Amino acid sequence: MFRIETSAILKVLSYGIIAVSCVGFTGCGGGEKKATKTEKFVIATSGSDTMVNLVQMWAEEYQKVNPLVTVEVAGGGSGVGIRDLIQGIITIANTSREMEPVERDQAKQKTGKDPVEFIVAYDALAVYASMKNPVDTLSLEELAGIYGENGQIDKWSQLGVNMKAIGVNDEIVRVSRQNSSGTYAYFREKVLNKKDFKMGSKDMSGSKDVVELVTKTAGAIGYSGMGYHTEHVKFVKVAAKKGEQGYEPSLDNVLSGKYPLARSLLMFTLGQPDATTKAYIDWLLSPAGQEIVKKAGYVPVAMVKR
Amino acid sequence: MNNHQPEISSALFTATVFTRKKQRMQRIVGIVFGIMAVAILIPLFVLVTYLIIRAWPSLTWDFLTDVPKNGMRGGGIWPALVGTIYTVTFSLLIAVPIGVMAGIYLNEYAKDSWFTRIVNMAVVNLAGVPSIVHALFGVGAFVLFAGMGKSIISASFTLAIMTLPVIIVSTTEALASVPRPFRTACWNVGASKWQTIRTIVLPNSISGILTGVILQVCRAAGETAPIMFTGAVFFKYVQRGDFFPYHLNEQCMALSYHLHTISTQVPGVPEPMLYATAVVLLGFVLIFNSFAIVLRVYMRNRKKW
Question: From the list B68, B198, B264, which residue is nearest A208 (CB)?
């Protein structure tokens, strides 16, 4: 009795496995057939953490515009997106920095196609500090002094900021990003003049992590895209030179060019994009797509005079 | 003298200092070990209660069946839930046949030789490899070398490689627990080795094998690293309540990775949503675990020895 039952269970299980795998594989084949029939299309993208929320909002909204096209969104950093593009496993790389000539060569070598660049939005790299922190304006030189390899600024008192008044350690807690980040690369280029970062900073793996840590730590300073601002953290005004007026990273200040750390957010495709991808990028650049840029806290392309 | 007599006899039958010490120690050890046993329940209980209380406002049916909305700050987790079911199912379809067959070979057919010792050592070592290493292996072997790209199938293969060792080990253990007389009796009535395995050994060890498999379901569902580089995405739109939204050559969302992204990447996610995602992941795992326990109890009650 017992033996019959368990071997029956075994049989059912093995038939089940066979059946499911058959369904799985035929389902796979059938799926491809269906794909040509209904023209379901997947655009794979990966890259910048700064852009990941913006791209996600685009993907969500584009579903309503064209339900047959699904956009896959993955993060990891601009470096990850560029690497994936070079290996040809994605359609669009979202990056917050330019592709370097070496990377363009690699892409050409591996895939035989030249990467094509699209500017899809503008961002200001914002410097964040805690609400408690009395610091108001920092110049680019001062930022280089804080973050740069040979920078001499380690204490808030050196910047004329009195932290003792609010009972916080005078030490500056430097919050930075991991080196696959486009934000990291941009900061290194624009603020540190391509010199290296000082050792001992807290390197976070996401833009949101940076802002959250700065929000919680009174003595901290950090940098991230302007879209990550919340009401619990403040922008430090940035001045191009010491003694000059500093500006907040706002829409107006980026558009007028007053804010010194504005940058473009880019998308790269391998060669000219195919019709579906082109339609998607065209939609991003249309007023409807750029409205979302504004909603995500970045600066729309159309508003910037070139 | 007369008073002394009962004293001696009572001294004979009451505990000596040595016995009392022994008993005291016995009691202390019992209490301390008992507290330890109860103590391991406390973190689990506190964790589950805390998660459910924090998650309560978001725990609705809609949360399960809806797609993320409003820049991942609203809606539900349907794409991630289906994605996890996909990767776990396909990883099992790959790992279970291979693992069970290898386990049967190792326990029933293989003689103790340098070869089987190497295989056994390899299996044990493979079980100790950190999941992030499996992830990198998956990227190299499946995504790039085998040309599967970042896809559900790559992720499933990576998870399968990760779960294989434990499935093999639990299969060999379950087979080894079947008493040898069962086999000899079967051989003596003229059954071949395979007939014996099929009709006697496997039915008597199936509960142990299934327990191992189901525990690996939990591991496959919970791990983030192996799928992060091989097939999990930040966001992908699917129809609400659609059971077959993904093709195998596409990437998908997954519960564990979704929890990681909404807690580290997306600003302004309402806290209850974070906790609710954790509760769903935990619930997924607990349901499978309790299924394993029920199955084991049922099978054990049917055992004849």
Answer: B264
